[in-house]
Amino acid sequence: MHDAESIREVYGADAVGDLVSRLADSRTEAGTTHYVVESDALVVAVFSVTALARLRPGGKSRLILHEIKFRPNLRGTGIAGDIFQWLATSLAVGTEYELLALTAPGQQPAVFDDFGLSESHHVFKWPVRSGGERT
Question: Domain limits of the chain?
């Protein structure tokens, strides 16, 4: 519950119950890990990394960075660079693994340039609709 309360502060939402159920959900995709970034015992960011299986012969293994969220008053303070540095040193991103990073349409954070990320894919979303209806 404490983790959910801390993460809720980053999201700026009241949905603690929803966060608790999502953190405890055993159906989380295999290969997905959720991370919490702390500074002085304060949660400053959260993100998820998922290992992607590849069929392409000779292709480097891939990780996808998603669900990244920063505490609003700490955006632009270097936390993203710290995360990317950690990805490089701890998960071998850039040497053993390629990284795909999801961002909102039309946004390319400056840290992407700093670490040599370039546009390579377009992502399309098939949203879940209420009542199981399709359009």
Answer: 31-132
Query: Scanning the structure block, which residue is given the tokens 């995360």?
Result: 83
Q: What is the mean pLDDT of each run of 10 residues along the chain (135 residues)?
A: 65 64 66 87 89 85 91 86 96 94 86 90 86 63
* Cα–Cα dist 50/99, whole Å: 10
What's the Rg (C-alpha) of the chain?
16
pLDDT of 2 reads: 58
Q: Token pair of 83, please? A: 């995360």
Scanning the structure block, which residue is given the tokens 């929803």? 18
Record the tokens describing residue 98, joined without a space: 């390629």
The pLDDT, as a whole number, for residue 1 is 44
Q: Does domain 31-132 match CATH 1.20.190.20?
A: no
Q: Which residue has tokens 């405890």?
A: 24
Q: Is there a contact between 5 and 23 (Cβ–Cβ < 8 Å)?
A: no
